[in-house]
Structures are given as structure tokens and as C-alpha cells.
Amino acid sequence: MLPRPDTAAPLFALLGLLLAPACRPSEAAPVDRSYTETIRGSEVRFDMVWIPNGGFWIGRTEVTWDEYLSYCAFDASGAAPPGVDAVTKPSKPLDWTPYDRNWGAGRRPAVGMSWNAAKKYCEWLSANTGHAYRLPSEAEWQLACGTGGAGELAERAWYSTTSGERTEEVGRKAPNEYGLHDMLGNLWEYCAGPWDPAEPERAVLRGGSWKETAKFQDPASRLAFEDDWTLEDPNFPPGVWWVPGGDHLGMRVLRPGSDAPSSPADPRAATATTK
User: Taken in order 161, 163, 165, 167, is the CA torsion positive or negative?
Assistant: First the structure.
């Protein structure tokens, strides 16, 4: 008698091939570590977006007046903690153009603060939230900016042709590849390091603003702070807190993934353009 073929073995082999993918441990999907921060003592919230290839969080939008005025607290009765006894705060600029340029506050980006004020805001925000916030280095800013987004520039940025000669509310233009709004246009954004190591007190800003042409709405564009922008400030020394000629200056906050407050070095792109 001829031996009967073993039909069970091929069947089990086939079942093994079919079931193997389901039995393998699935590859872990990237974890979105983005979150919404709330300013303690207020109802003001803002989004922080995780940049995985940088290892840090950065604001989804530029700092708005809702956020910045929580720090300024011109009316002490409505101040969010900590108060002036713990963190230095700016006074209301009464002797020149209104701080919001009569453009409106709320969700419009805070405009015209000094580099010193931008850094002090980060100190206050860190004390308020318990998270270490600071300005981004130029390298971090450029990494987060990426390509600046896809599509027509007019769909992604507020600049001289699209802005109506003023800032616009944040988040209304299309985001870049990381989901960040207004990395190009609306306001130039302060960075942590100086324009040049030879000028350590001179701030550098990135990204273009509402008042420049399309040429400057570029991830490599850099802007050097000009002291002439402070000349209308009656205080001495001028420009400690506010920049009267700074209607194109703003900021965005960063939180290191390590939550360490120190800022890395600021290598600058060799292809950067200047204004």
C-alpha cells in the first residue's frame, strides 16, 4: 500500500503564513507629544507643538496679546502669578503710540516688545506654568520653520501684499509641515542669540513680517535689531521694555524636551539673507 500523503502539515504551514503578520508585535506609531498650556490664574491657553527631529516643543503660533498681557498686568487686580515682587514686568507705555497700535489685542500677536522684555516674558511664563520656556535659538527656529509650508505664499503668510498694513490674528493662514502658523510673515520673531557674536547686545529676528515684501518671507531671512527703533521712547535708557518703532517685532516660545532652561549655540545658515 502506498503511504497516504500528510495533508495536515501543508495546511498548518499555510495557516502559519496567514496568521504571522497578526501575531507580530505592531510597530509603534509616533507619539504626538504636543499639548495645550494654560496660564495659571487666567483662562488663557496656547498650544505647544512637538518637533521630533529637534527634541523640543515650540508655540503653534506667535505669542498673542491675550498671553502677553497676562504677564504685563497693567491692572494689578487682574494679574496672573507671579507678581512684580518675583518677576520684573513692563509698565504701560503711555507716552507714545498705544502698545497695540490701535490694531486690537486678543488673538493678534503681541507686537513691539524689546528683546529684554521677550526674555523676561519667558522667565515669567516658566515661573507661572512650572515648565522651562525660552526663546528659540536660530538653529531651532529654522528647524521648526522647515520649508515654511507648501502652496502659494499668500495662503501661508501675512506680508505687504496680504496683510492690510497691520498684523492679523494668529492661526488664520495655512500651517507649515509641523502644524505651525505664521512662521513666515505677520511678525519677525526674536531668537535667543545675538545677530553676531561681535555684537552680543544686538538681537536677531527671523521669518519676515506683515510690512515686508514676499522676498523676505523666507526660512533663511534674518533681521538685525536697529537702535533707531527705540528713539521715540521717552524713558532712559530707551527700549528697555517697548520699541516704539517695532511694529513688526514679535516672539514665539520654545520648551526644551529636557525642560532645561539653557539655550544651545546659534549656528547660522550660510545661505541666510539679511534686510
Answer: negative
15-33 residue pLDDT tens: 444 444 444 444 555 677 9
Cβ atoms of residues 183 and 148 within 8 Å: yes
Mapped onto helix, strand or coil, the DSSP state of residue 177 is coil
**190: closest CA among 240, 88, 119?**
119
Retrieve residue 245's grid coordinates: 518703532
Sign of the dihedral through C-alpha 163, 155, 65, 248: negative
Nearest to 156 by CA among 135, 120, 184, 189: 184
pLDDT digits (tens, 9 = 90+) for 166-179: 999 999 999 999 99
Crossing angle for the helix pair 115-129 and 65-72, nearest 10 degrees? 80
What values do phi and psi take at 146, rounded to 5? 60, -130
